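Reopening this one. Same input as before:
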Amino acid sequence: AMMGSGTAKGEDRAREAAEAAVASPLLEDIDLMGANGILVNVTAGMDLAIGEFEEVGNTIKEFASENATVVVGTVIDPDMRDELRVTVVATGLGTEAKARPVEQQPTLVHVNKDTGAEDFDRPTVLRNKHKAAQRAQATGGNSAEDMDYLDIPAFLRRQAD
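Same output, byte for byte:
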């Protein structure tokens, strides 16, 4: 990232300060066309007009590439009178712009799933009990000895372990 700063006073101070910031020796003759992102800070007194703020943004955008993200912010400093300072931070210099993600089109996938609608005439508790019994038989669990173990409260079983 590189930074430049420019200050101007008078009638056309917004454009002059923005151009001075872009031409700042701190930017070391870097062309903003190669920047992926540009952060602009406008510092002025209470006399800053909205038109001046917009002019700074438009002036910086003239020097930037079309794909660059330009963010302009402002700071009001009551001590500054008839003076405007523009600070520019350029990022992503010397790197290729990231490719924009391609918007994916949603696809409809139809999943044929058995809902068990034929069992809806039986209460859920009975359906689940029947399924649990089938699973227990398949795994070989739920014998009488296993079920007696559950008669002991959990906190006592944990103490015994």
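So the earlier flakiness isn't reproducible anymore. For the record, Helices lie at 13-22, 50-63, 124-139, 144-149, 154-160.
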